[in-house]
Every structure is written in structure tokens, then in C-alpha cells.
Write a structure and sequence with these properties.
Elements (H helix, E strand, L loop, with lengths): L1 H9 L2 H18 L5 H16 L3 H17 L5 H16 L7 H9 L2 H13 L9 H17 L3 H17 L6 H15 L3
Helix pairs in contact: 1-2, 2-3, 3-4, 4-5, 4-7, 5-8, 6-8, 7-8, 8-9, 9-10
Length: 193
């Protein structure tokens, strides 16, 4: 795994992918598919595929990594947000042409993972943890944006409202742009819901 990440850092993406692919296989055989090591390796492999311009190959790996991260005992909001954001960026990078119905169908597949993450956030009461409020707010914002891409406008509204409420509580970081983004999205959604 470390050798693969070193290759990634050096920009040797083919070598990095080969080493990380091997790490995934090793972790699955020795630790099991649901291992945190497997989850991390799948996410890294997805990231490398994206850097190689292989978003279609990366997307199921990133989604599986998110599913595993959301289900594991040690829930890491930063990792969850990075994976959700990666999924969003796969569809919003500007270089992809597809029909709206196809985009909606692809993004609807993220609903169970988002629901699992939300359940974990609620169970762990992370919205009450001052150290996690910022990360939880961007998880909700990104989830809302993914629901918008899925054409699921009511859940999108609910997630963006939760994100906005949390962002407004943050006093040690300038969240103006994030707040404005939530407000703009909610204004758009109010016109169609």
C-alpha cells in the first residue's frame, strides 16, 4: 500500500494503480472485504483511477469504499466527506455528457450509503461535537448536492437545510461561500419542490 502511495505521489500512476490493486487483493484475503484496510485501499485505487481519467472504473470503487467506511466501527467524518465529494466530482467535472435520466439513476444509487452515514452521524451525535460540526456540515451539503443530481429534490432540501443550520453555527471559520451555496441551492429547490 505504501509503495503504491509513493508512486502516486511521484505521479507514476500506472505503477501506483498496480500496487494498490495488489493491496486490495491482499487485504481482502487476509483481513476480509469489510476491513477498514480494504475500504481505504479501494478509496485510494478509485482516486488513482480518477487521476488517470478512468472515472467510470473509479466510481464503483469509491462507492464501495464509502459503504465500508460508513459501516465500520471507527467512523471518520473526514474520510466520509472526501469519498462523497469524490462521487459528486465524478459527475460534475464538466467533461461528461449524459442524459439527465442517466445521471439521476447513477446518483440515486448513493442513497443507501448517504442514509447509513446519516444514521452514524446521528447515533454518534456528531452535530453536537464542536470539533466535527464543520465536517458534518459539508457531509450534509455534499449529500444534498448528490440528491439534487439524483433528481431527489425533497431529500436534497432536507440535507441542505441541515448543512446550512450547522454552517451558521461555525464561528472560527469563514463559511460565507458555503452558506451562499446552500442558500442558492435551496432557492432553486423551493421553485421546483
Amino acid at each position: 500500500m505504501s509503495v503504491g502511495q509513493c508512486h502516486e505521489g511521484l505521479g507514476h500512476l500506472d505503477d501506483a494503480a498496480a500496487h494498490i490493486r495488489s493491496a486490495v487483493q491482499i487485504f481482502e484475503k487476509t483481513c476480509g472485504h469489510s476491513s477498514p484496510l480494504t475500504a481505504n485501499a479501494l478509496g485510494v485505487l478509485g482516486r488513482i483511477f480518477i487521476a488517470q481519467g478512468k472515472s467510470e472504473e473509479a466510481e464503483p470503487l469509491v462507492l464501495e469504499s464509502l459503504n465500508l467506511e460508513a459501516a465500520k466501527d471507527a467512523f471518520h467524518p473526514d474520510t466520509v466527506w472526501r469519498l462523497l465529494n469524490t462521487l459528486k466530482e465524478i459527475w460534475t467535472d464538466g467533461g461528461r455528457q449524459m442524459k439527465l435520466e442517466e445521471l439521476n439513476a447513477k446518483c440515486k444509487r448513493y442513497e443507501p450509503a448517504i442514509q447509513c452515514c446519516t444514521t452514524r452521524i446521528d447515533e454518534l451525535k456528531l452535530e453536537e461535537n464542536a470539533k466535527e460540526v464543520g465536517t458534518v456540515s459539508v457531509i450534509f451539503k455534499t449529500a444534498g448536492e448528490l440528491f439534487m443530481l439524483a433528481g431527489m429534490y425533497r431529500p436534497a432540501q432536507l440535507y441542505l437545510q441541515r448543512a446550512l443550520a450547522l454552517l451558521k453555527r461555525i464561528s472560527d471559520f469563514d463559511c460565507t461561500v458555503l452558506i451562499q451555496s446552500c442558500v442558492s441551492s435551496l432557492e432553486f429547490l423551493s421553485s421546483i419542490v
